[in-house]
Amino acid sequence: MQVAIVGCGQLARMLALAGLPMGMRFSFLALPGESTAPVDGLGRVVVATPDLEPTALYEQLGQPQRVTAEKEQLPIALLRGLAPYTEVHPNPEAIYQCQHRLREKATLEACQVPFTPYRAIHEERDLWAAGEALGWPLLLKHTQEGYDGKAQWRLTDEAAARQWLQGPAAGTLGPASGQWLAEPIMPFEREVSLLAVRGREGHITFYDPAQNRHRQGILVSSLAPAPDLPAGLLPQMQAALQRLQTHLDYVGVLAMECFIKGDQWWVNELAPRVHNSGHWSQQTTAASQFENHLRAVAGWPLGDTELQGAAAMLNLLGVPVDQHTMLADGASLNWYNKTVRPDRKVGHIVLRGPALDEVRGKLNKLQSKIYGPDF
Ligand code: AMP
Predict the structure, then answer these.
(1) Distance of alpha carbon 244 from alpha carbon 108, whole angstroms
(2) Ligand 1 pocket, 149 CB below 6 A?
(3) Chain centroid to CA 254: how far?
């Protein structure tokens, strides 16, 4: 089966590496300015240009039987244009709902899934109203740009808000501008994500939930299964994710990132794709998130997601590859073939073991070796 992937980053690379043994062949669509190094040697790369018609694009991609995407911030018209020629999964409308924070919140509301409170900020007065309603400090987020905590501002008080209005927000406000939203700083105790894969016939399988640690908005590590979740929480989260996938008529992996405090939880955001917090599945489950995403997209039987024991994932952020350290203690290294730059995700390590405590110990040890004790 010929599959085209929109995007040429590490997620595209790992999808292809999972699909090749199942008899898939790949082509990739590079968005303008995107580096294609992670998919070097894995299939043909087509560079998207504004004048490329859907027919020509479909031909250049090798007439794929399926199209999927490794990112949500992509021109949705491109996917809609390909849909008459081939099957696109997840469907373009599902990605459209998830690629804009205001539409995403509306989808969560429609599916009765708890989410972080917010106010849309179209005009200056919306910001003051948000401060009144949600209280300072506020977290200002762009509705489309930004990932890994980028395009976000923590506004401690009204003076900081005035600076933001004159700085990042300058020229972007107006009736129904739809570019910004404000959230309170959530008092969460931990961040947990849940990934589900939904097949073409509607069958849904879950991966174990992962507890995630971020540093300056960037994911550093995940531990699965998330330890000590209050009784009843996981079934609620699974039911919510199932409602979302069914509502969106979703095929493939959908990730749900949540904040948790006691037995309360709120969705922070959805990712309509394979997700960094599920990378541990690569070397610890019979069918990783990458393999199952492709099985779903192809319409093939889904594979086993069960995690025996425990797993951890450590992101490699801006560090050079060092196999002697990174392969010690039975670790698996997944390097993305990217140029190393400060804080850039250039690879990750997967650790496994029979019990959480042992894996957590290995994770902490490896993290200090790579980043130093104070990281
Ligand atoms: P995001 O880009 O929305 O996924 O945010 C990146 C990270 O910033 C999250 O994983 C959290 O650690 C933090 N964050 C995002 N929104 C909030 C919020 N409303 N309150 C507190 N922390 C947040």
Answers:
(1) 7
(2) yes
(3) 8
C-beta 137 within 6 A of ligand 1: no
Whose Cα sits closest to atom 7 in ligand 1?
217
Query: Cα-atom radius of gyration of the chain, to the nearest Å?
Result: 21
Question: For 191-247, what is each residue's pLDDT tens digit?
Answer: 999 999 999 999 999 999 999 999 988 999 999 999 999 999 999 999 999 999 999
Which tokens hold the place of 88? 């696109």
From CA 212, how far away is CA 194, in angstroms rounded? 11
What is the model's pTM?
Answer: 0.96
Longest dimension (CA), the chain: 59
What tens digit of pLDDT does each residue of 101-132 get?
Answer: 999 999 999 999 999 999 999 999 999 999 99
Distance from Cα 191 to the centre of ligand 1, integer Å:
9
User: Which domains does the chain show, CATH number per domain?
Assistant: 2-88 (3.40.50.20), 117-184 (3.30.1490.20), 190-371 (3.30.470.20)
Q: Is 116 in the pocket of ligand 1 (CB under 6 A)?
A: yes
Residue type, 139: L
Q: Is residue 362 scored above 80 in pLDDT?
A: yes
Measured over the CA atoms of residue 121, residue 122, residue 126 and residue 127, the dihedral's sign is positive
